[in-house]
Amino acid sequence: SVRVDELTIIDILTRRSYSQRREIAFEYEKRSKKDMITALKGALSGSLEAVILGLMKSTAQYDASEIKGSIKGLGTDEETLIEMVCSRSAEELVEIKRVYKELFKKELEKDVAGDTSGDFRSLLLALAKRDEPSNIVDYEKIDQDARALYEAGVKRKGTDVATWITIMSERSVPHLQKVFDRYKSYSPYDMQESIRKEVKGDLEKSFLTLVECFENKQQYFANRLSEAMKGKSAKEKVVTRIVVSRCEVDLMKIRTEFKKLNQKSLYQTITETLKETIRRSC
């Protein structure tokens, strides 16, 4: 059997941008008359295969495939679905939906709707429907929205989840940051504490992911990475997904946030907890 030079594959493909990797694949096919993705699948396995094949996709293709993977087959991987939908901006989701339809010949919203239920489904669909990325801050509405969030939750018995969904899916990020700040003048708890008190399960995780990302998205990913590498059983899939999906988006900023949180670099933490593979992709 032919020995696979994994280090060379890692070295070449992790040091290039996505467009350069596509050019390499094109040249490879011209020279060898073989498809490079198929060759990589045959040569690699396990975590290394997951990282390298992930890097051969565009960011939107990778994200769309991860969403598809989380709802394919028996049972739903809610953790992945929440991370992928609730942490992506309106702009990113527009592109993910387009690519999802291209790749799987199905509407992302329909697949998500068929695999989820209740308020959890309503929230994910409201986020997936956002079309217009905007940075508009409606100063007239800041106080109104803050009060509405308070009156729909902490102030009353039970939670008017529909109001929370509307405000959090229909306002811009800079607007919501101001709303959450104003919210503290109405509620004895901040928005994250209020979510923990008011809702549970997947809905709680989804709202928390949203609010964490509205406040500081890179810190959210740094937290996810820290959690995934705590304890004895490191969650390689989570680490792979974040590193691969954000490597051309904001991985440098995530690394900075990670170091602030852990007083140790992401590179060093991965070296100590995971295999060679993922470390070299950083």
Question: What does this entry look like structurally?
Answer:
Keywords: Annexin, Calcium, Calcium/phospholipid-binding, Repeat. It comes from Oncorhynchus tshawytscha (Chinook salmon). One of its GO terms (molecular function) is phosphatidylserine binding. One of its GO terms (cellular component) is plasma membrane. Belongs to the annexin family. This protein has helices spanning 6-14, 18-32, 36-43, 46-55, 59-71, 78-86, 90-104, 108-115, 118-129, 139-152, 161-170, 173-183, 191-198, 201-228, 236-246, 251-262, 266-273, 276-281. By secondary structure, it is mainly α. It is built from 18 helices and no strands. The radius of gyration is 21 Å and the shape is globular. Helix 9 runs parallel beside helix 11 (161-170). The two termini are 31 Å apart.
Q: How many E-type strands?
A: 0
What is the H-and-E element order? HHHHHHHHHHHHHHHHHH
Helical amount among residues, as a percent range? over 70%
Judged by helices, strands and strand pairing, the structural class is mainly alpha
Q: Topology of this structure?
A:
Elements: H1 6-14, H2 18-32, H3 36-43, H4 46-55, H5 59-71, H6 78-86, H7 90-104, H8 108-115, H9 118-129, H10 139-152, H11 161-170, H12 173-183, H13 191-198, H14 201-228, H15 236-246, H16 251-262, H17 266-273, H18 276-281
Helix pairs in contact: 4-15, 5-6, 5-7, 5-15, 6-14, 8-9, 9-11, 10-11, 10-12, 13-14, 14-15, 14-16
